[in-house]
Structure prediction request, 209 residues.
Amino acid sequence: MDENTIKRNELLAQKVIKGLASRNMTGYYAATKEEALSLALSLIPKGASVSMGGAMSAHEIGLVEAVKGPDYRFIDRDAWTDKRAAMLAAYDADVFLTSANAMTEDGMLVNIDGNANRVSAIAQGPKKVLVIAGMNKVCKDIDHAMKRAQNVAAPINAQRFGLSTPCAKTGSCMDCKSPDTICCQFLITRFSRHADRIHVILVNDQLGF
Prediction:
């Protein structure tokens, strides 16, 4: 990444962090993936129970692998036979890991979900929500953020999961009602009533989709 892009990201991140603060959320800026991992782990107490939703960005900085270690109690829904029980257990976790499909320069988070386990946990349940987001997720305003979520994140995720949706075939949102659609629930997080619950680490890199 060239120095001008790095500088631009640093400046834009400070604007987003101020926007998050105005919405009762806490933002941080990490210059590298390694710095993001260290910062994330500093926000997760040893012994904490940790759950997660779709969070490719958390995987990419090495956070998921780290919380699977002996210092934490990781709720691995893939290891549970009863998937519903695993999802319900996630709501009572100390920390919930996720990313954002998009976010605005003034600090709003935008997420789209199919089963709603991710967006519902962001909205309520886990004691702390830790969002890992590359600067590629930052959009000018809510309109651009929604378009990014629908036309960038959703088609790529549909392809990644091998779903038979129009966007998986065309690469852009067709506003479908396909049985496979992952655009079932839209969550815009514009304010948090609970201080110190939602923490967002902005990473100076392209993470996730």
About this structure: The beta strands are 26-30, 49-52, 73-74, 95-98, 102-104, 109-113, 128-134, 138-139, 185-189, 198-203. The longest helix spans residues 3-22. Residues 3-203 form a domain with the Rossmann fold fold (CATH 3.40.50.10420).
